[in-house]
Design goal:
With 282 residues, the chain is mostly beta strands. It is 11% helix and 52% strand. It is built from five helices and 16 strands. It has a 14-stranded antiparallel barrel with strand order 1-2-3-4-5-6-7-10-11-12-13-14-15-16. A hairpin with a 2-residue loop joins strand 12 and strand 13. The N and C termini lie far apart (43 Å).
Length: 282
């Protein structure tokens, strides 16, 4: 919030226009901090659960996931927060596996002419033992603000996965390990986020997921998701998050090595956020 106060103080816009200007940008401010969000429609449609479900953008969502489902994959995703075209989130990801290590790189961009953020993430993962996976990522965050200097941050993440058995796994993910902060007139902490997730394969058709997220800047958030594998060509995904204030749902359609995902997130206050993702396995 201090970041926006600085913007208001330095802006040449007349003071009596600032409240009106701020109201117009509320959706932007709510979506702006993309560094703390999960990415990819596969995760968005299961209540934004990211730490315990292997999909694309794992370098950001939890780098340990790169070794959980090793393969070479390319993904492109697009989200439209609350039907605001100037807040569109565009993302691309590539993941690969070598003999001993899995790695991935992701790029995300969001915002408009007033506030824009970009992330480049590089993550690595390796199996430490039969049931334990360790992952780490380094992320570069660039923030561009109206009439203010551009800000640049590096922050790291650590992820762990314990595979209890074929049906059950437990994961954890710590975001911003080094407590990176914005370098403003007053140092503004980015915050640290900790996630714990559980994935349980109830049957060959149903997978249940849950996640707890907490940080030093907000209260605990609960997330729940369900994957229903109808047949080799079609999956249904549903989820809820933010203490039942957000709902999501959509489908995944398979064609050979190509997946197409589309669906919608709904916030009770802000409205609908549609999105789509295309990914190709090699």
């Amino acid at each position: 919030m201090y970041l926006w106060v600085i913007l208001a103080e330095k802006s040449p816009v007349k003071s009596y226009l600032i409240p009106l200007f701020s109201l117009q940008l509320i959706p932007c401010l709510l979506c702006a901090q993309i560094w703390s969000r999960p990415f990819g429609m596969q995760n968005a449609l299961i209540g934004n659960i990211s730490s315990c479900y292997p999909a694309n953008f794992a370098s950001l969502n939890n780098p340990a996931l790169l070794s959980l489902k090793p393969s070479k994959q390319l993904a492109i995703a697009h989200q439209l927060p609350y039907l605001q075209s100037n807040l569109a989130i565009a993302a691309a990801s590539f993941q690969n596996t070598t003999k001993h290590t899995s790695w991935g790189i992701s790029f995300i961009q969001s915002g408009n002419e007033f506030f824009k953020q970009q992330i480049i993430s590089t993550g690595f993962s390796r199996k430490i033992s039969k049931n334990l996976i360790l992952g780490a990522a380094l992320n570069y965050l660039a923030t561009k603000q109206l009439q203010l200097k551009n800000l640049h941050n590096l922050y790291g993440t650590l992820g762990f996965i314990v595979q209890i058995n074929k049906q059950l796994l437990i994961s954890s993910h710590l975001i911003n390990v080094t407590a990176s902060a914005y370098q403003l007139e007053k140092k503004q902490d980015l915050g640290q986020i900790f996630q714990v997730g559980i994935s349980y394969e109830f049957s060959k058709h149903i997978r249940l997921l849950s996640e707890i997220q907490t940080s030093n800047k907000s209260s605990i958030e609960l997330r729940f998701g369900l994957l229903y594998h109808i047949n080799p060509l079609l999956d249904i995904r549903i989820g809820t998050s933010k203490n039942l204030n957000n709902y999501s749902g959509g489908i995944l359609v398979r064609k050979s090595t190509i997946n197409f995902i589309m669906g919608m997130q709904v916030n009770r206050l802000l409205g609908m956020s549609p999105g789509a993702e295309f990914n190709q396995s090699f």
